[in-house]
Amino acid sequence: MAKCDRSPEDARHLGEEEFVVMLGAGHSQLAAPRVALPDLKGEPWVRFDRDSALDGVLLQALRETGHTPETVARVSQTATAVRWAAQGLGAALVPASAVPASHRHLARPVTPAVSQPAIAVLRRPAGPSETALLAFLRQEDWSDPEFPGQDS
């Protein structure tokens, strides 16, 4: 999960997850390895529900570039935001992990970079399955999404 105000004190930090912008096929910004958020001024946005932390991430990122998003649709699920943006409804800012391999060619990291801490919260007492899953999650590189056109 993403770290938030309600995260337990014993949450385990896994890393920083980068956000990417999803764009429709043929969008001019797909030619760039990274998309500058100011270059998306006036772009319609597929946004998350008003009380969603993910919508807050978009608002903060765009506020820092000096513009307010034009809302074309609101969704509650990242998979829906990815699909609708990929179909050309509008741009969507989503966690890189939410982009399936079949849509990675339509996603680009943004500049300035947008990220948030990824954490794991285990039940108490944690059993062998939870402990094994945590070990697996700690092997993941949360901060290095690879997308077409991006220098590695």
Overview of this structure, please?
By secondary structure, the chain is α/β, with parallel strands linked by helices. It is built from 3 helices and 7 strands, in the order E-E-E-H-E-H-E-E-E-H. The strands form 2 sheets. Strands 1, 2, 5, 6 and 7 form a 5-stranded mixed sheet that branches. A two-stranded parallel sheet has the order 3-4. The radius of gyration is 16 Å and the shape is globular. The two termini are 26 Å apart. The relative contact order is 0.29.
Helix content: 10-25%
| Overall form | globular
- How big is the Rg? 16 Å
- Taken as a percent bin, the fraction of beta residues is 25-35%
Order of helices and strands: EEEHEHEEEH
Tell me about the largest β-sheet.
Answer: 5 strands, mixed
Class computed from helices, strands and strand pairing:
alpha/beta
Distance between the termini: 26 Å
Tally of strands:
7
- Given the structure, what is the number of helices? 3
Average the pLDDT over all residues and give the rounded result: 86
Which segments are poorly predicted (pLDDT under 50) over 5 or more consecutive residues?
none
